[in-house]
Amino acid sequence: MKIIINTPIISAPAGVANHYLGLRPYFTNAVVYNQYMPMNYIQTKVPILHTPLRMLALFFDLIKFIILIIAYRLPTVLLNPSFGPRAIQRDALFMNIAKMLKCKVAVFIHGWNNDYLQSQLKTKDQFMSVWKNTDAFFVLAKEFEQYLRQLGVTAPIFVTTTKVDDRMLAGMDAASQKKGEIINILFLARIERVKGIFTAIDTFKLLKDKHPFLKMRVVGSGNALEEAKQFVSEEGISDVTFTGSQYGENLRNEYAAADLYILPTTHGEGMPTTVLEAMAFGLPVITRPVGGLVDFFETDKMGYLIESLNPLDYAQVIELLINDIGKTNKISNYNMQYAREHFIASKVARQLENTISKI
Question: Do 10 and 165 meet the contact criterion of CB atoms below 8 Å apart?
Fold first, then answer.
């Protein structure tokens, strides 16, 4: 079986690119990546030339895509848009080319833009006129499967997951572990308001007043990074460390040194990889009921899903774990075992290949 996977360039991994960077060593079939230039990458690097470079990059990516299909002789194509106007419109071009060249096409939809979804539900026929020939869809949550059915999709839809790279856990003891106490709280994500950075900091501030030994690590970069630093400084919150983005061994060390993970996100998440990674390192997880987390997350056994954005609600459940280390250890060991059974990249890659082979 031959597969062409459309993915953003993976030299600076994030989101979809990070997913396929982690899966690449574990594919057993002939898999090639058609790496395209994301529009936001062009806009960030060269904003003045954004529009002409965007069109030139897209033209180049389409030509490269055609060459790969011809070279691979009728491969199955896997497209990877988020459900938003730019990504859907872009991948419709790849979809039409692949079908014209007689390829089977699967579409893996990662994140969801609910405003765009509502607009498409009003024009279902227009959406289906583009995507009716898709051979299969992959989604990260049962909720997203329902959205596609509402849009009129009749093709097979498979619910899958993101992954934890096996290499991240290399040499890590999977046996039962014990925490002496919760000291280090980890926020690891893009530093954006929608990812919940300010809710997380406010939560830490409430906890710090009662538990002065607590520390917080904020790992990542983003548009709200400087604002978050300024907020911590103005509020006089001590023991908050901003590390910037971390990769490889440094990223592994951040998880290994943490005692609890918090992500009060309101972003249109599919399946937050950082949550799965935190679980694999045995961290209790405090987050919101978003995307595919709703399908498997067991509150009180894995941590807590909190609908609210009130920092007091997050502080209360974290304090519960601070005061009951036996419960914390039980959650820690359960998360570690569950993640290794369900989210390891080598297993996810094989499952994806097996499903595509049946399309």
Answer: no
Say how far apart CA 310 and CA 291 lie, in whole Å: 20
* Entry pTM: 0.90
E strands along 47-132, which residues? 76-79, 105-108
Alpha helices, DSSP H, located in 217-324: 225-235, 248-257, 273-280, 293-296, 311-323
* Burial class of residue 249 in the structure, from the number of CB atoms within 10 Å of its CB (0-12 exposed, 13-18 middle, 19+ buried): exposed
pLDDT tens digits along 212-244: 999 999 999 999 999 999 999 999 999 999 999
- Find the angle CA(284)-CA(289)-CA(294) to the nearest 5 degrees: 90
94 Cβ contact partners less than 8 Å away, ≥ 6 residues apart: 6, 62, 65, 77, 79
> What does the alpha-carbon distance between residue 296 and residue 298 come to, in Å, rounded to a whole number?
6
The answer to whether 288 and 307 have CB atoms below 8 angstroms apart is: yes
132, 101 contact by CB (below 8 A):
no
pLDDT in tens, 99-146: 999 999 999 999 888 899 999 998 888 889 989 999 999 999 999 999
